[in-house]
């Protein structure tokens, strides 16, 4: 065949949802940041130093030695039962009893969002999201063509008083990230969690609590999850990506059995089940309390990295630039002077081998253009200083032109 | 909290597609067949004896020793590039050159179906399927609410002459399994492949060639894939489930770049990427020609199992029962006397600890009730004889009551 034939792919009719699909801005930027000379504050990638590679290696070896027929075979859509039981026990806190029959293992937390979209969202269904919210959730839900409704937030996160009957009428779900939110790094205070739980109890739709970062608290005591305050009215999403390793793609959904059952049906049609082998590896690694010693190490690493970035920001940033001081997680949210568009700043920064994620794609509607998200977890402190100094110089140049 | 609160899960409004969702009949049966005393001809599970556990164990160990940071980290949505390159080379046969840029790694072949549904099917889009067809494809596509149109088939498989302009008008895709079809075990003859390829070249929609069983040819030469006959007009789906192990959930889509790009966007929103670690394990296992010696062993095993079942059927089945002689794959398709409903027969068989899959769920429309699918790959020959004899006795009892 000749080249002209090779290129003769016909323009097939795509679905409505596919026509609307766009690539993630983060993803396009990550391509640039694969160059080793780039100082990337863009990624939501956990630090590889935190991956328990030797423990996983030993677990993989044991599993394939002792039980290869089961570990490599098809398995139940709901997930590996010992892991579901372990998760149910782990989330049974403060008088709440989570049942293994509520736990569905997913191919990463992202799949949890896809399954919830499949099961809850019809075309033009109102879907409530924070302002801003996780870009990946917007991408997942958008495949089911909802109508987004932004819930008001302030510097502490979602404002429960904003959940008026007018705003929430007809909604199919409310999506929130109470712990160290992506992109803002904010932690929702206790009284707002309580108010959100009370709202969930009255709402005719579920509150989805996405909690991939909850374990990454730098100091002090964790706040109760919204799920623990209204366990039959909140759907809780968890992940092993930030506390073990993201490359295994292991997350989970805790939901009331009625919804769980529909999610299982949807998952069966979506990928049959999450890989058996990776589920068994994670169970082998965590079953004897490994996380009790491992998570504090990840916390300390991220806390020190965060501290380094906060110091760099303080030393370098000009007046008119502000940011939050995260209590955990992976992100700092920066507000620029209102005349600076972070998308334009990104182009200049990348030319100087520094990357971050502009804030605009995190807004379901009416984006704020003077925001940006910085991640500090994979960059050594000396490079953090260098990268922040370069960003600060670019911002200063803009400010002087204003 | 008390028990009444535990059970107070509200009835949340579900999406239209979720309301229509039903569980797979296969899945419900598989639950029964987990009892060790059941002789199950129901599963599409490959024989664990065929899993190369030691090779995978060595590969997992090497990867986690030499490159854990990459193997456990987030990775590209498209998949692990060396594996994509290997697949492109493997499918570059007969003058066809497949480009790595066409290959998308999926979380099992089932996810390929979900992604194609996402990208190609709008509500009420006509979707062409064989009569009967793979139940799992019907489940996947149904989430996108198509209108199924059954393509005529005969004992050789899909009849290309049946693809009239009237039947195919407005279709978004044609889904076919040319090699050892699930559930019928049929292999599409060469001239029909050529006719289907010619149809694909003219059609304003893609022909989807699902090929999980192609390598499981018992004897002789493989027939060319439809994809190889019209590479820019056919989307080819492959899987490692039947030639290595299904528990890893690794499949792939070969598609023209335009469609590939949309599928990547959809996959990003669906699960970000397929687990990095499992992709690397499979690449490590296959990269040096392992399949050249491994696949012949799987073929020989399945051929002998198939032969044992064919012998048992011949010895035991009464007049009026017919079946095909597969040239490969995992399934035999049995036609009962027209007065016997295979769903009712299943209930009786399960009571005697024998299981199979009734034919009806494999039909998109107007099911035939006197068909059933037998899988022979995981049952030892003595048990095959015992199970077939029991089935035959049940059928004989029905026939005598007719």
Automatic annotation (TrEMBL), chains A, B:
Gene Ontology MF term list: pyridoxal phosphate binding; transaminase activity
Cofactor names: pyridoxal 5'-phosphate
Residue ranges occupied by any Aminotransferase class I/classII large domain in the UniProt entry: 53-391
Name recorded for this polypeptide: Aminotransferase class I/II-fold pyridoxal phosphate-dependent enzyme
Record key words, sorted: Aminotransferase, Pyridoxal phosphate, Transferase
Domain of life: Bacteria
Source taxonomy: Bacteria, Pseudomonadati, Pseudomonadota, Betaproteobacteria, Burkholderiales
Keyword Transferase belongs to the record: yes
